[in-house]
Amino acid sequence: HGRSRADDEQVIEGRYDAPLTDLGRAQAEARANEFLAAGSVFDAIVASPLKRAHETAEIVGRALDTAVVVDPGWMERHNGPVAGLTVKEAGERYPLPDYLSPFDDLVPTAREGESSGESAWALQARVIRALQRVVRRGPGRYSVVAHGGSLSAALRWVVGAPPGGSGQGLRFSLGDTGYARLFFTPRLMGWGCREFRHGTNQ
């Protein structure tokens, strides 16, 4: 997706549902025009319901005359009570232990009644199911418009890498409106990557 208001506010995003900024809309329009000029065709655009991703998908969908289908499985990692806080505020209110395993919830110090977020493995499992739903749509070309965390989890699955704890493990950095062009071969039950294109970070 394009740049969101949370980026300008310098807060932790995750499930904080910030819309695109004017720059983010311009980024989405530029990417849509690039796809249009390249003759890219999609059978559907699958999008996270969070505003920043859904709005990006709608911009691309209008340009390419392609329907947008919402799938909550592509939402960003659930980050519990730290969503919308600055890094400083989050560290003061919810200090993290020295090490988080990939099985630990993201915010294990959440207070009673608050969500403690999603573990790295829970995110991976959710995104694998979302990816499976795309494949089960049948042969075709699909665009998924989502988030850095969820897309990175999908790419980890494609290359066979497990999620790590406390910032460890393989992470794919796409930037604003970056993308990876993947293909799936059913008879081999295997994935491949034709292109990895980093976006912008402004």
Short description:
This protein has 202 residues and is of the alpha/beta class. Helix content is 35%, strand content 13%.
Structural class, by secondary structure, is alpha/beta
> In which order are the strands of the major sheet placed?
2-1-3
Helix content: 25-40%
Low-confidence blocks of residues? none
The major sheet is characterized as:
3 strands, parallel
How many domain units? 1
Radius of gyration from CA coordinates: 17 Å
How much beta, percentage-wise?
5-15%
CATH superfamily: Phosphoglycerate mutase-like
Count of individual beta strands: 5
Quickly give the CATH architecture: 3-Layer(aba) Sandwich
* CATH fold field value: Rossmann fold
Descriptive overview:
It contains six helices and five strands. It has a single domain, classed as Rossmann fold, CATH 3.40.50. It is of the alpha/beta class. It is globular and about 50 Å long. The strands form two sheets. Strands 2-1-3 form a three-stranded parallel sheet, covered by helices on one side. Strands 4-5 form a two-stranded antiparallel sheet.
List the helices and strands and how they pair.
Blueprint: H1 5-9, H2 22-37, E1 44-47, H3 51-64, E2 68-70, H4 87-93, H5 120-135, E3 142-145, H6 148-159, E4 179-185, E5 190-197
Parallel strand pairs: 1-2, 1-3
Antiparallel strand pairs: 4-5
List keywords for this structure.
202 residues, alpha/beta, Rossmann fold, globular
